[in-house]
Design a protein that fits this description.
494 residues; globular; mainly alpha; 67% helix
Length: 494
């Protein structure tokens, strides 16, 4: 308690330091990215509880102060998907308060963190969005570097491995690489949330590819891909393939299709050559304890729906899974973990909770852009493989992805976010990269793109050389252009 109080007190001067050092139009994106990073490095089931409590209190104070700070002219905008997320945790808190008060502490932490992030980002500007996306990529890259250090030294940084009461340690074999290699987990206590963070970072890197220099983006790409493999997460590999396939198939650029066809042909050739290895890997997966544990729990669905009406509708409360195992609702193997968030929501929050989870993914996918949809593919895989609503890191990351579905943000960015998403990593060299703003408008199919860009460049002619460079190629300029109507340089934006 003393440590948590001290952390909360230190968060106040930290906020004022950030407010002095960071531009107002990117303060909210910076704070949310910082909060995610702090949780990824200092909150996990392996971290001592007093430290976890201190991290939660400090970040809640930081988010509260950020929400109360001046907005710098940005209008408040709340969209459907974040509201569904808020409703999900609000209902979970109420159900748990009534049905299983012992689990209220955990669900309230998640509800407060997620709700404050939604509040902060509802006040954010398009520049905040760019800063937030960059921040998530940076956090993923830092975790990947931590994974490389772990791989080299043979033990995770900071918090080590989890050791159960039986003496068994959680240093699982890496089934992707085989041999005596174990799965890398960074500082996040387990390879599954670690792989999820890396994949979301990879998706956001690819969908903002032209915002970074060639050396930076290719190094980050190679690092993230390497550490996804080192994590040994087979579900992460499946999610990566599906997310990248979606980004390719949804592209509107011919250059992307041409390079994508080459990559698809190469992937098909590799699959044919290594088919025996792939078949053996699939057989090992289907006979593994992790798969049998998860598939065995699916038989609980009819039993959970068949509970008394009130419990079937509202569930038994957060963290009540052990009681449900004891009552025989779940497949018992001695490892009493559901490892399926949708099924856990059905069990603990009933049909209402499971329905809100499905609604959250559907609404965010419908309203979001390609980056959000690819990120949701990653989370859909996570949804079926572990209970991520029990981890602040995953709740914060999901909240960020859901909030990125705000269409107002994408309109405010002149389509530059969508244009870089269209290009992706497979269309980054040669003539495919045309003048920045013109390629952005043409990639998203904006009407009269050429005339719009010409007007923007003309308006920039009286400005400084740096601003003129930004007008001709905003992605390469390395500066954040202000929003239309929020500064003298608004004329430089198409």
């Amino acid at each position: 308690m003393m440590l948590a109080a001290a952390a909360g007190g230190l968060a106040v001067p930290l906020f004022f330091v950030l407010a002095r050092m960071v531009r107002r139009d990117v303060l909210r994106g910076t704070v949310v990215a910082l909060v995610l990073g702090v949780h990824c490095f200092a909150w996990s089931p392996l971290v001592p509880q007093p430290v976890c409590d201190a991290v939660v209190v400090a970040t809640l104070v930081l988010l509260l102060l950020t929400a109360a700070s001046p907005r710098g002219g940005a209008a408040i905008h709340v969209t459907a998907a974040p509201l569904v997320l808020v409703a999900l945790f609000a209902s979970a808190s109420l159900i748990t308060f009534v049905a299983y008060p012992a689990g209220l502490g955990l669900v309230l932490r998640m509800a407060l963190l997620s709700g404050l992030v939604v509040l902060v980002l509802s006040q954010a500007s398009p520049a905040d969005r760019r800063r937030l996306v960059d921040g998530v990529v940076v956090v993923a890259v830092l975790q990947a570097l931590a994974g490389l250090v772990e791989f080299a030294r043979g033990a995770p940084l900071l918090w080590g491995y989890k050791v159960y009461a039986t003496g068994r340690g959680l240093w699982n074999e890496n089934h992707l690489l085989g041999g005596d290699l174990v799965r890398v987990q960074g500082t996040m206590s387990h390879a599954l949330p670690y792989g999820t963070l890396l994949l979301v970072g990879l998706v956001l890197l690819l969908t903002t590819w032209h915002r970074r220099g060639p050396g930076t983006r290719w190094s980050a790409f190679a690092l993230l891909c390497t550490c996804v493999v080192l994590s040994g997460s087979r579900s992460a590999v499946v999610a990566a393939v599906l997310a990248l396939a979606y980004l390719l198939l949804s592209s509107r650029r011919a250059a992307t299709w041409q390079r994508g066809a080459v990559l698809a042909a190469a992937a098909a050739a590799i699959t044919l050559v290594s088919w025996t290895v792939i078949a053996q890997t699939v057989d090992a997966l289907l006979s593994s304890g992790s798969f049998l544990n998860r598939s065995g729990h699916l038989a609980a669905v009819p039993r959970l729906i068949g509970r008394p009406a009130a419990e079937a509708l509202f569930g038994s409360g957060e963290s009540s899974e052990s009681r449900l195992f004891a009552q025989g609702y779940f497949f018992g193997t001695g490892f009493n973990v559901v490892d399926n968030q949708l099924l856990s929501s059905l069990a603990t929050q009933g049909l209402v909770g499971a329905g809100l989870v499905v609604a959250l993914f559907v609404v965010a996918a419908v309203r979001g852009g390609r980056d959000v949809r690819a990120g949701l593919i990653v989370f859909a895989s996570a949804l079926m493989t572990f209970d991520f609503f029990k981890m602040t890191t995953m709740v914060l990351l999901l909240t960020v992805v859901v909030c990125l579905s705000d269409r107002g943000w994408r309109r405010g960015e002149d389509g530059r976010h969508e244009s870089s998403a269209v290009d992706g990593v497979v269309a980054t060299t040669g003539p495919a990269r045309t003048v920045g703003a013109a390629s952005a408008a043409s990639a998203v199919g904006a009407p009269s793109a050429a005339s719009t860009v010409s007007a923007g460049v003309s308006g920039a002619s009286a400005q400084s050389p740096r601003v003129r460079a930004a007008a001709s190629d905003p992605a390469a300029s390395g500066i954040d252009l202000p929003d239309p109507g929020h500064g003298r340089r608004a004329a430089t934006r198409p």
